[in-house]
Amino acid sequence: MSTVKDKSESETPHVLIFPLPGQGHVNTVLPLAELLALSGIHVTFLNTHHMHNRLLRFTGNIEARHPNLVFETFGDGILREPPVLSRKMKEGFAEVESQGMTKLRELCSERSGKPKVTCIIVDAFLGHPTSNLGDELGIPVIHFRTASGCYLWSYFNVPMLFECNELPIRGEEDMDRIITRIPGMENLVRCRDLPALCRGSREGTLDLDSVVFQAHQSQQAKAVLMNTFEDLEGPVLSKLRDHFPNLYTLGPLHTLLDFMKASKPPTSLSEEKDRTCMRWLDAQPPKSVIYVSFGSAAVFTRAQLMEIWHGLMNSNKRFLWVIRPNLVSEQDGGVLPMELTEGTTERHCIVGWSPQQEVLEHVAVGGFMTHSGWNSTLESIVAGVPMICWPLFGDQPINSRFVSEVWKIGLDMKDTCDRKIVERMVNDLMVERREEFEKSALAFAVLAKNSVSEGGSSYSNFYRFVEYVKSIC
Ligand code: UDX
């Protein structure tokens, strides 16, 4: 990649990147920071102390590798606790917003002693206050949306769905009703497939009104960045562009960074002690193992975990299962069932955390049981691994619908956690319908890799975006 050597220091763009301090969000945005730094742009990455310390443990001295990439941190009080899963999540979000805005203001001030900030890239969850600050300081603000295009497009259409009476959802018996009016997604999704907040629940500080507001608010951003690619979500992206004309698809970002530099980006900001699972995988036959992992934030009841456990055991397939220590809900005592303690047998391996991208690319892995978080979905697509989806919150229910009905690269187990269904789906994915799923998964893996290769859509969009960043400098 070329560096901007012909410009004086003061003319070099300085991008301030502010992700939401949660694993799924930092994971997505860090490769973008590295890519921009590699392009000769000054980058400041703003994170909480807590997330930054986790990040350093697994990236080594990332700053030394990128002279243009500087880390700044904030976060006192409640933000010293782990994010998202904290019981005080609501207060945590409010603190990220208030302490983050104070720090942003300080970094953008001319008295900061740093190169002048020429643009801010912020997680869309923090888009509204940041856009206000940007307007006040005269600094362009760009929104980064870490989730899928189908998620943004669904929430964007929620007001229209209320107007034409397709929403609200009227209880459990209404869940299989087809939603007919979302442009580009007509008759594709049932009520149960809509992003989770459409069910009337809350997620921390988030309720339906606030995420719909955020979705529309991104129209005020100077540009919108998304971790997806054209060949995956083309029809939805073309609808989105009617409302977000300056939209850049750059995904899968971890693969784009892989392509642009030899070394891999970090994906795991949690414990890395579990490389033992790689040794266990090495001993398994090709495509014989189903990898089971539900991301960094999903929480289960003990009963649900036992249904999955029995389903996996009864399937007679080998499995590698990531059981985070905090996987059981606090209402359910927070204690893991005895069966799910870490260890290995000939048939299964249970670990507390795994190097997920490596696992998915391992020759022994033939399927992925996932919560359909967007990073996990993209990582599985890149590795060409078919999925069984057990979505829980946020974008996950709509992602899993697209996996099963649009891309046809897996099965959607949504809303029914039953050992018989788990057993049947594992057998369908790994045996009965294996060829069919493998064929479509491999086709999407090729498209994903093409999109980040020279001349591909995400590759070209990245360079267009770099030019845009320079033009607003
Ligand atoms: C959250 C939301 O759940 C998700 O729906 C949204 O799209 C992004 O924010 P998370 O739950 O963590 O993210 O899921 P996901 O997006 O899949 O990200 C998990 C990341 O952790 C992936 O990059 C995955 O590779 C990594 N991971 C997970 C590991 O490295 N090891 C593991 O054992 C499990």
From TrEMBL:
Cited CDD domains: GT1_Gtf-like
Signal peptide coordinates: none
Keywords: Glycosyltransferase, Transferase
UniProt xrefs under SUPFAM superfamilies: UDP-Glycosyltransferase/glycogen phosphorylase
Enzyme Commission number(s) of this protein: 2.4.1.-
InterPro entries on file: UDP_glucos_trans (IPR002213), UDP_glycos_trans_CS (IPR035595)
GO terms, molecular function: quercetin 3-O-glucosyltransferase activity; quercetin 7-O-glucosyltransferase activity
The keyword Oxidoreductase belongs to this UniProt entry's keyword annotation: no
Domain of life from the UniProt record: Eukaryota
Family, per entry: Belongs to the UDP-glycosyltransferase family.
Protein name, as recorded: Glycosyltransferase
